[in-house]
Amino acid sequence: GAVVSQHPSRVICKSGTSVKIECRSLDFQATTMFWYRQFPKQSLMLMATSNEGSKATYEQGVEKDKFLINHASLTLSTLTVTSAHPEDSSFYICSASGGSLAGDYWGHEQFFGPGTRLTVL
Amino acid sequence: GQNIDQPTEMTATEGAIVQINCTYQTSGFNGLFWYQQHAGEAPTFLSYNVLDGLEEKGRFSSFLSRSKGYSYLLLKELQMKDSASYLCARGGGYQKVTFGIGTKLQVIP
User: Fold this and answer.
1) Neighbours of B9 (CB within 10 A)
2) Parallel/antiparallel/unpaired status of strands B103-108 and B9-13
3) Residues of A with CB below 8 A from B50's CB?
């Protein structure tokens, strides 16, 4: 199956700093990447959808100036949490969908990264 | 999750069968997913149904009724490692997927 990596897996930062999280599809070209946030005992909430080379589409209530998303290539998307505050502490998960390097179209299936646990002090 | 309903918790015995139900909003429907999520980890894909009926994949099976907005995940021969949250998720337009809150399954000896 497809492999998606995230880095870092865990980060602790001071309030007011910015944190960048990387999401990489290791063995396939991800035409679309998704960023989710999950608070304890809650469902995954979609934050934004990004397509390679275009601006991300943010869900209602998600501040695009605070959560900067860049999808510069078919294998890399980054989420930057700017001026992080304690309420931004959460489990951030990316997922990727698209075809394999061989061109097969998986389409509907999303492959999730292992997640990044962010703690803002 | 938005308009996705599933029980929050279930308990079942090792070796038994358990069925986790899910109902969802039918408008804009584009497939029904089931994911497994262990505590502190990202979800892993279990199944995807877009047509009515039952799809079997080893010990796990998933059923869909589009007219009723209903799906279930069936787990057979339960093992202790099956203790996890099971997320029902509805596909919509533009590949968007909306997740339910998940059903926390505890398998007991």
Assistant:
1) 10
2) parallel
3) 108
CB contact A114 to B (< 8 Å): yes
Residues in chain A within 8 Å Cβ distance of B97: 34, 46, 110
Average confidence (pLDDT) over B56-61: 94
Length of chain A: 121
For residue B93, what is the DSSP state? G
3-state SS, A45-93, equals EEEEEEECCCCCEECCCCCCCCEEEEEEECCEEEEEECCCCHHHCEEEE
Residue among B63, B34, B30 at smallest CA distance from A107: B30
pLDDT in the model for residue A109: 72
pLDDT of A104 > 50? The answer is no
Quote the CA–CA distance of B21 and A8 in Å, as a whole number.
35
Give the C-alpha separation, A78 to A35, whole Å: 9
Tell me, yes or no, if A97 comes closer than 8 A to chain B by beta carbon. Answer: yes
B5 to chain A: closest CA residue: A43
How confident is the model at residue A72, as a pLDDT? 82
Q: Which of these, A81, A78, A75, A73, lies nearest to A22 by C-alpha position?
A: A78
What would the mean pLDDT of A54-74 be, rounded to a whole number?
91
